[in-house]
Amino acid sequence: MPPADLVEVGVLRGAYGVQGWVRVQPHSQQATALRTCRRWWLLVEPARPVQVTAVRRHGAILVAKLQDSETPEQADRLRGARVAVSRAEFPPADDGEVYWVDLIGARVVNRRGIELGTVAEVLSSGAQELLQVRLGERLLLVPMVERHVDEIDLAQRMVRVDWEADW
User: Fold this and answer.
1) Contact residues for 120 (Cβ-Cβ < 8 A; gap 6+)
2) Exposed end of the chain (fewer CB within 10 Å): N or C?
3) Torsion of CA 50, 52, 56, 61, to 10 degrees
């Protein structure tokens, strides 16, 4: 059985080379969980674990050697499989950093104490990340930059921002 705390972190994009390596498109630029965790879960029917014997950055993607993938044909059969990692296996975040997944569901409150909603998703616009904040049917996009994010308190599941509901 897959663990209940799986977090999707990337997608397999097909074979790389002739020794069974596979190309991996990470969902984040840092790809920390993909680079450090050695047990991935392939979200196929049914979800199954796979051991990672090696992984390295290759431009904007990663390439990985998975146990039991010895040929390009075997690696290519995995094309399109979504990759997840147990949140419990993520390495600790560096000081001043958080994992996006830990922000989902956090309350977002502005400097005046007005609750703007909860974090529904963290999006990447290329230039910066955006908090997608939902309150009922209303959606706000708050840039995750120092100018607008005053504090992230994971223990309280709260993000304090310099933002207004009508912006």
Assistant:
1) 104, 132, 133, 134, 139
2) N
3) 0
Residue 24 has pLDDT above 80, yes or no: yes
Q: Say if CB 45 and CB 107 are below 8 A apart.
A: no
Pairwise CA distance, residues 78 & 11, whole Å: 9
Q: In this predicted model, which residue has the larger pLDDT, 148 or 95?
A: 148
Quickly list DSSP for 115-140: EEEEEEEEEE-SSSEEEEEEETTEEE
CA distance 57 to 11: 15
This prediction has a pTM of 0.81
Rounded Cα gap, residues 121 and 118, in angstroms: 9
The pLDDT tens digits of the residues spanning 85-135 come to 999 999 999 888 899 899 999 999 999 999 999 999 998 877 888 999 999
| Mean pLDDT within 71-93 | 96
For residue 94, the model assigns a pLDDT of 87
As given in the structure block, the two tokens for residue 77 are 């059969």
CA atoms of 39 and 152, how far apart (whole Å):
29
Domains of the chain (ranges; CATH) run 6-89 (2.40.30.60), 100-161 (2.30.30.240)
